[in-house]
Amino acid sequence: MRAAWYDRPGPARDVLELGHLPAPEPRRGEVLVQVRASGINPSDYKRRGAAQTGKNSYVRMVPHSDGAGVVVAVGEGVDPAWVGRSVWMWNAVNRYGYAAPEPREWGTAAEFVAIPLSFVSALPDGASFAVGACLGVPAFTAYAAVFADGPVEGKTILVQGGAGAVGELAVQFASLAGANVIATVSSDHKGERARDAGAHHIVNYRTSDVPDLARRVAPGGVDRIIEVDFAANIQSDAEMIKPYGTIASYSSTSDPEPALPYYALQYKGVSIRTLQVFTMPDALRSAAVKAITTGLERGSCSRQSQLHFLWTRLRSPTRPQKASRTAILC
Predict the structure, then answer these.
(1) What's the domain range around 180?
(2) How many domains, the chain?
(3) What's the rounded Cα separation, in Å, for the pair 139 and 71?
(4) Cα 14 to Cα 76: distance, rounded to the nearest angstrom
């Protein structure tokens, strides 16, 4: 079968190989999926560059955690009725051992992938494989950021980067759950995206004062902040959050070791939640799958734009290796 893989870390053009590998066979509790689209996330290129905590010790890695396709076979203990179903999947590459007996190093950048049934969900009618492939990491991250600390109905939620892959979905989840949503964006076009997703208040952080708008919308402070860059925004987040509010952060790209305004946060009793999608508790993940499926059925989770390219361009230095809305069409 066709597949992409690498045996050492480095830039895609230097280390990624395209060729043929033997097709995997599903083990107990697994399904074999014929991959129709493979999703690319920041964690994939960071893993390939060995940029994450704990350098990879793999011999060979087939990349990409997310994908979508059709179940063509099942392993022992799995209902054969799954054969023929269209599905979306996540955690195909799993370096954390979540819900699996061992780390997994065979992702969706291949014609076939054998994956635990617990990492698979049916793709509703009308949802494309490209949409399904772009869900896993951003959708689970968005759901956890919004709901890991409880219901948000009637609360004011600030989503930093409200038109990004995670941010747009966070806006959708929070708005549909009855929250008053503020979204920060970097352009008018992105502001329209965030508004279409359900944001009630839009602020361009390049041209406007974000804390000023937050004070006008929520004089007592916002209840929860969904943070895309902890280091860049923690000072203003500390200013905007209400007493005993929560800052839920899924990245700190500008500085992985940020300085913390401890007393500004301690004075308010602020909670800081960091998010790791690969180790989400089962109950939270199950709730997320239900919400994502509902969104797909309604067409809301499907509105994110995807950038598509054929897998023969996988090694191209011009391909969008850092896009969370990118699907390889297999």
Answers:
(1) 138-277
(2) 2
(3) 22
(4) 39
3-state secondary structure of 308: strand
Give the pLDDT band of residue 20 (cuts 50, 70, 90). very high
Inside any domain, residue 297: no
255 plus 165 within the same structural domain = yes
pTM of the model: 0.89
Residues 151 and 106 in one domain: no
- Tell me if 184 sits within 8 A of 158, measured CB to CB: yes
Task: Return the CATH number at 113.
Answer: 3.90.180.10
Q: Is 244 exposed, middle or buried (0-12, 13-18, 19+ CB in 10 A)?
A: exposed
Q: Which CATH number goes with the domain that contains 212? A: 3.40.50.720
Q: What number of CA atoms fall less than 13 Å from residue 27's CA on the CB side?
A: 6
Query: 32 and 112 in contact (C-beta within 8 Å)?
Result: yes
Same structural domain, 58 and 39 = yes
171/29 Cα distance (integer angstroms):
35
Residue 22 resides in a domain? yes
**Residues contacting 326, CB < 8 A, separation 6+:** 39, 40, 134, 306, 307, 308, 309, 320
At 55-103, the pLDDT tens digits run 555 568 899 999 999 999 999 999 999 999 999 999 998 755 454 556 6
Output the CA angle 138-143-252, nearest 5 degrees. 55
